[in-house]
Design brief:
heterodimer, A: mainly alpha, ABC transporter involved in vitamin B12 uptake, BtuC, two-stranded antiparallel ribbon, B: mainly alpha, 14 helices, 2 strands, 2% strand
């Protein structure tokens, strides 16, 4: 019983790392640009399919193809940004959030149906020669690909953190979050910062999608569920703290798996949502966010 | 001018009411029923989302609850109208239950919170009632479209009428004040939470009634289906396509939504959702006030021209 519980919890945490990674992407975009890109889950889906096809058609190892997936998502990101999102940069914040959300709904409808036409509604997943491999510690099984997913998520998070702390561009992004007008006064090109943040979000979605296709499965309609999870984790963690966001993702994964263990798999989503609502109502700044003055 | 308006509205309703006697084709009646259903949904959503400025992504919950209560009562043998009414009241009860905590959330957080709420119901109902609900055989034999048509027409007229009177009342002005600037409204003695709750209650009531109509109209469906998030998204989509915070906007949006989708299904087949998504994005980007703003813009332009002409003449 105890062992099965811990095993279950480990799986939950490993999945939660991907929630965290997806949420860091959407939070990156929202935090900097105030674009609520609800098509984030669809970007994830595209990343998953890119990885899947590189593996299926060209036999490319899914972990080695990650840079190509990121490149692909950067191209998609530039196209979506220049065609649609750039037009909403100058709107006042409330309008911007609302309009980007509406455009996002439209885009998610488009992308989802394009994927459906191109690749059918089948569930797909990548099965490599090492997909079934796992190691055991204290009787708990750790599947290699899922652990690799956690490690890659942590590497992405660390790289993002260093980028934002140490580089000039990263500091420009943080300055823009604090006060975009002041940032533009000291010579920061705010438009470039917006584009860059959007692209970072898309790239993170791509990586998360690829990791999902390796450890779990993908299908054209997966986007909505992932967007909802990402939004929940973003709000749970509280804005302005990516490490908090990531931890919130792991907490959600752990909560879901615990629920599935005690109440049954049918309700795993429900308990996560209830928890989310309670935290939103009683601690609106999120678990790790600072209280607004 | 005002009398002309009233007369033309009455005329329109009379024409719509007499259509089932003229039209033989069931598919046309079905299309009209669908349009009325979506008018009710869009107009209800508009009371909260358009006039009070609270973007809800959880209206599917009210629609689903209305359908659930109505379907249960009606198939147990209760007459349909009271059953639909109970559906609406159940939706209101739920709305008032969740209203106070939900309105602690502002803006986008309210949207995500209501989406999460509706999702909880969607999953739970799917677990509790995993089966399809089908009408019993004797109901199927007696199934007629005409009473369904009148129910939906009646609901559509009712919700549009209520919106009209609400918007022109003190309460309606309060709602719009809350939408524009909550703090300023509060400082003038307009209680934001009361107006939000009132708008939510009315909006949920009509959405619940629409759910009741859905339960009366559809022969068989999964209990879970009316709770699906797509209903909430459709309401929001229609209101923004037509023009949010106006009386005609949601009507135009609903007609446009249903007719365009039908047209696209027939003409571009499996591409129809892609084309629809693209059109929606274009409307949001280039017509932020919705389709109705075209009319307003041309009217303004016309007025300006006639005014400048008048100035020329007088000088």
């Amino acid at each position: 019983m105890a062992e099965a519980f811990v095993q279950n919890l480990v799986f939950g945490i490993l999945l939660g790392a991907l929630y965290g990674l997806a949420a860091v992407g959407i939070a990156m975009v929202f935090g900097v640009t105030k674009f609520l890109n609800v098509a984030h889950g669809e970007l994830l889906m595209l990343g998953g399919y890119a990885c899947y096809w590189l593996f299926t058609l060209y036999g490319l190892d899914p972990f080695l193809s990650l840079p190509i997936v990121v490149l692909f998502l950067l191209v998609i990101g530039v196209v979506l940004y220049q065609l649609f999102f750039v037009r909403m940069v100058k709107l006042p914040t409330e309008e911007k959030i609302k309009n980007t959300m509406l455009v996002g709904f439209g885009l998610s409808l488009i992308l989802q149906n394009v994927a459906l036409l191109l690749w059918s509604a089948d569930d797909r997943g990548i099965t490599t020669s090492y997909s079934a491999a796992s190691f055991t510690i204290l009787g708990i099984r750790f599947p290699v690909v899922r652990v690799a997913g956690l490690v890659i998520s942590l590497v992405c998070l660390f790289a993002l953190h260093q980028f934002l702390r140490k580089t000039y561009t990263g500091k420009a992004i943080r300055a823009t979050v604090e006060d975009w007008e002041a940032a533009s006064l000291v010579g920061i090109d705010v438009k470039q910062v917006y584009l860059l943040s959007f692209l970072l979000g898309a790239a993170l979605a791509g990586v998360a999608g690829a990791l999902v296709s390796v450890s779990y499965s993908i299908d054209p309609s997966m986007g909505m569920g992932w967007t909802l999870k990402s939004l929940i984790v973003m709000v749970l963690g509280g804005l302005g703290n990516f490490i908090g966001t990531f931890i919130a993702g792991i907490l959600l994964g752990a909560t879901e798996s615990t629920t599935a263990f005690f109440i049954g798999g049918n309700y795993r989503q429900v308990v996560g949502l209830v928890l989310f609502l309670l935290i939103m109502v009683f601690r609106p700044q999120g678990l790790f966010g600072k209280k607004e003055k | 001018m005002r009398n002309l308006k009233i007369v033309s509205i009455i005329l329109l309703v009379v024409i719509l009411a007499s259509l089932p006697m003229v039209i033989e084709k069931a598919s046309t009646i079905n299309l009209l029923i669908l349009i009325f259903l979506y008018i009710v949904l869009a107009s209800s959503w508009n009371i909260l989302g358009g006039y009070t400025g609270q973007t809800s992504l959880g209206h599917a919950a009210f629609f689903g609850l209305g359908s659930l209560a109505t379907r249960q009562l009606w198939t147990m043998g209760f007459p349909i109208l009271p059953s639909v009414l109970v559906g609406g009241l159940l939706a209101v009860a739920f709305a008032l239950l969740i209203g106070a905590p939900a309105f602690r959330l502002k803006g986008v957080y309210f949207a995500i919170g209501t989406l999460a709420l509706a999702q909880i119901l969607y999953v739970t109902i799917g677990n509790v009632f995993p089966e399809i609900t089908s009408l019993p055989v004797e109901d199927l034999i007696n199934y007629q479209l005409t009473p369904r048509y009148y129910l939906f027409l009646g609901l559509a007229v009712l919700v549009v009428g209520v919106t009209y009177f609400l918007v022109n009342s003190r309460r309606g002005l309060g709602m719009m004040a809350v939408r524009e600037e909550e703090d300023a409204a509060e400082s003038l003695g307009v209680s934001a939470i009361r107006h939000k709750l009132l708008a939510l209650g009315i909006s949920a009531f009509f959405t619940g009634l629409a759910g009741g109509g859905f339960a009366y109209y559809h022969v068989s469906y999964y209990y879970q289906f009316p709770f699906a998030p797509v209903w909430s998204l459709d309401m929001l989509t229609m209101v923004y396509i037509g023009g949010s915070g106006t009386i005609l906007g949601p009507i135009i949006g609903a007609v446009f939504f249903v007719v365009l989708k039908e047209f696209l299904v027939l003409n571009v087949g499996e591409y129809h959702l892609i084309v629809f998504g693209l059109l929606f994005v274009l409307v949001v980007l280039f017509l932020p006030g919705g389709i109705i703003s075209i009319w307003k813009k041309t009217k303004d332009a016309f007025n300006r021209r006639s005014k400048s002409n008048a100035v020329k003449v007088s000088s």
